[in-house]
Amino acid sequence: MTNGTRADLRELFHKGQLTIGISELSRMTGVSPRQLRYWQKKGYIIPKNEDEPGQARVYTMKMVIKAAAMSNLLQTGYTLKAAAAQVDERMRPAQTIYHLLADRYQGYEVADNGQILVDLGPFDPQPDQELFVKLVGDKVKFELKDKQE
Prior knowledge:
Elements: E1 2-5, H1 6-13, E2 19-21, H2 22-29, H3 33-41, E3 58-60, H4 61-75, H5 80-104, E4 107-110, E5 116-123, E6 126-136, E7 139-146
Antiparallel strand pairs: 1-4, 2-3, 4-5, 5-6, 6-7
Helix pairs in contact: 4-5
């Protein structure tokens, strides 16, 4: 059986790992840099490095998605405030899933039969057990295993 570590997923999906500058964000969304700076001033988009005055603005993929979605909604007649609120609401489920996975993901195991078991850490009602999830065909199945010390 082979194992993957928690760092595997975190390295791929770490918040803020992939960033772009304001010029790239402008090109990707069709929103002028001036307008993006206004959105930032209003608090609708936030650069990753907002705590570093004097540095060029860089944006995470989350802000890229938000800015693109806001731009699309503005083109359909939404106000800026309404577009930002709508995008925030639409992004909530994805953010919840991201946080759940980032918090619970401990790594993975590949069994001798090739089955991938994703380790979700201690099973809260039974902390001496580890919770794993796997795909069997197209069905999600959970499995409890004795905690490895």
